[in-house]
Design goal:
It contains 4 helices and 7 strands. It is of the alpha+beta class. Strands 1-2-3-4-5-7-6 form a 7-stranded mixed beta sheet, with helices on both faces. β4, α3 and β5 form a beta-alpha-beta unit. It is globular.
């Protein structure tokens, strides 16, 4: 069973978000902590997913000058292939779509290997490949 909670950086559960992002991005993908934790932490809306009661994944979204950006999707290795990532995407979209005007761009920067995952959630690529945090990415937008 997957449960997802909204939280902010003042929540006692914030340490779980940090632990997941440290494990996935900083340790596994070797992203520097300075790049991983940015000035948008306070203004972003954060999500924490639990799989059978255990912290399993996280994500956030925020308003940008371009639209609404979904980001920092991370699922701990032992919980991948259990639907946690898909549940996080759906939870974020359930919150974002009602807040967005029809013409508002809802987008993300997908690691190239994750493009098929986001495509299943109705995102399409646009623009050219680029490097972010030493990882190849592509911009994707929600088709609606």
């Amino acid at each position: 069973m997957i449960e997802i909670q909204n939280l902010d950086t003042n929540s006692p559960l914030w340490k779980e978000v940090r632990a997941i992002r440290d494990e996935v991005f900083v340790l596994e993908q070797e992203v520097s902590p300075e790049e991983e934790y940015d000035e948008f932490e306070e203004s972003a809306r954060h999500f924490l997913a639990f799989f059978e009661g255990l912290p399993a994944g996280t994500a956030r979204w925020r308003f940008t000058t371009n639209g609404i950006k979904l980001e920092r999707f991370a699922v701990k290795k032992e919980f991948r292939k259990h639907g946690v990532g898909a549940a996080l995407v759906q939870a974020v979209l359930n919150e974002v779509i009602p807040r967005a005007e029809k013409e508002t761009l809802i987008y993300l920067h997908a690691q190239v290997q994750a493009i098929p995952f986001y495509a299943k959630a109705n995102f399409e690529t646009f623009g050219v490949e680029f490097v972010e945090a030493d990882i190849l990415h592509r911009k994707m937008r929600l088709i609606r």
